[in-house]
Design brief:
The protein is 40% helix and 31% strand. By secondary structure, it is α+β, with helices and mostly antiparallel strands. The longest helix is centred in the last third of the chain and has 19 residues.
């Protein structure tokens, strides 16, 4: 899922990506959170599944948030390596996942 998010922000230029899961499937929500997505609310009885109506849990991520998260993670890695403050090509974030 991270590669898909990266593709849509970096290659396509989306400003927002959103998704949802059934309330009865909280593991999907954990995957979304791990990818940096933010919980935006629950719509009651918004999904019509085989088991009947279910609540729909919504998540989204904005491109600004995505790039901020990536920059912060990159800066933390540099700091851990003792390279904080350097701006050489070796310390710039690389974005070639595909």
């Amino acid at each position: 899922m991270k590669k898909v998010i990266d593709f849509f922000f970096n290659e396509i230029g989306f400003s927002r990506i959103y998704t949802a899961h059934a309330h009865e499937n909280p593991v999907s929500g954990k995957v979304m959170q791990k990818c940096g997505m933010v919980y935006e609310g629950t719509m009651r009885q918004a999904l019509n599944k085989n088991a009947g109506l279910q609540d729909k849990v919504n998540y989204a991520i904005l491109s600004d948030d995505y790039f901020s998260i990536r920059t912060n993670k990159h800066q933390a890695k540099l700091h851990a390596r003792g390279l904080a403050g350097l701006s050489s090509p070796e310390t710039e974030p690389v974005c070639s996942l595909l």
